[in-house]
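Run log, item B.
One chain of 492 residues. Sequence copied directly from the ordering sheet:
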Amino acid sequence: MTFFFLLLPPLVASLLAFLVRPYRAFVGWASALLSLISLGAAITIAAQTIAGNVPTWGLTIDSLGLEDVLRADSLSALLMVCITAVAALTLFLSPGVGRELRYTAPQLRRYQVFINLFIAAMLLAVSANNVGVMWIAVEATTIFSAFLIPLTLSKTSIEASWKYILISSVGIGLAFAGTVLAYFDFVARSGRIENALNWTTLMATAPSLHAEVIRLAFVFLLIGFGTKAGIAPMHTWKPDAYGESPAPLGVLMSSSLFAVATYTIVRWKAVADAALGRGYTDNLLLALGLLSLLVAAFSVVLATNYKRMLAYSSIEHTGLICLGLGLGPLGAFAALLHLVNHTAAKSLMFFLVGNIEQVYGSPLIERVRGLSKVLPWTGGLFAAGLLALIGLPPFGLFVSEFALFRAGFALNQPWLMGATLVLLSVVFVSFIVHLNKMLYGPPPVGVIAGQVDRLWNIAPLLLVIGVLVVLGLTLPVPLAALLEQSVEIIAK
């Protein structure tokens, strides 16, 4: 039953937003309150997995092969908690719920319908034991989020939405090809058996699969799902989509959707490693991770738009996570911890850029001056968030990046770690330069200094900063248990 409390609330909220006509403000509040049910269910599932249980749910129709179609191990539970926590924060800080109303009733209805469907699809993707169901859920995230990118219609927002759809659809098509290759190889080895598409069945059969087929399948899967994660060179949709999205969608895409796409790669990596050994997938991930860092570093240098700058930052952190996943069990632990920290940090930053864009009326860095005077709380949190993203103490990203370097040197990869450090230094200097321009100087004409940030908009973000500081100072026992159990799943 726990899965129903996880997946049904966003579906109910979406249906409510669709049915209530004319649109009423209570719809947004109902959606936000329902999100707490999903968060509670995710925490319950996480507690069960820490205790050694593996919750499952499935149909009993044998001909469909859908026994245990939903399953939550520690890796799934970790992602569920991340998604539901960010979703709850997003829905409580969404348009019409504690934030200034800037959209029409039809826009708010469309927003509430599709943002909740988007959340439900992400939760289904990380709950699915069946790889076919997971693929469908990931494809659904593209469809639902694409309706929200042009929430405010403009030529650039529509172009960004179409670019996102086209590139993501090509990627998900390649992922489908990889899934089909792996499935037919499984059938050739094991015959047609029930639940052939379940992770548990695939993992048990993986050592007997054809090495050549699995190598090719993993390349398709890595490129396909890597497109959704924003791994270079499949990252080109990110700056446009993030730059044109409303702030709450940017929060979910940059944190939760990124985590879901990474999760799919991690799952298939475990299958490929069981069939091939770790070397093949590790080398691919290390190469793409370093390329992503290279692209991100020099894109940040040239950034002129602070929303696009955060998109390049996501590409940078995608690269770091890929590097971690390619560096053995220690690196996998660092990568998953980094994923958790990045989810918190990037959700914080996109809420703040929403505040900044609302006051300054522009996403361009050159038009944002005197932020520390105009919006003192937003400016201070924005500075703290950027310092967290570049990996400075006392924030959690410093700890996860330190753990990543420790894993690299432990595996005798000094040249790789040296190159990574140089590229991170480029990002560090570029972020500090851009931050300095935005915080100081006289405010532009028409922008009033000393504006008071709404308490409702700022208080939850202080909580996020608190989480990042706590993760920089200590590792809570439940989180450590989830991470250790997840590493056992993906890096045996």
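Observations after the first pass:
- The longest strand covers residues 56-57.
- The mean pLDDT is 90.
Flagged for discussion on Thursday.
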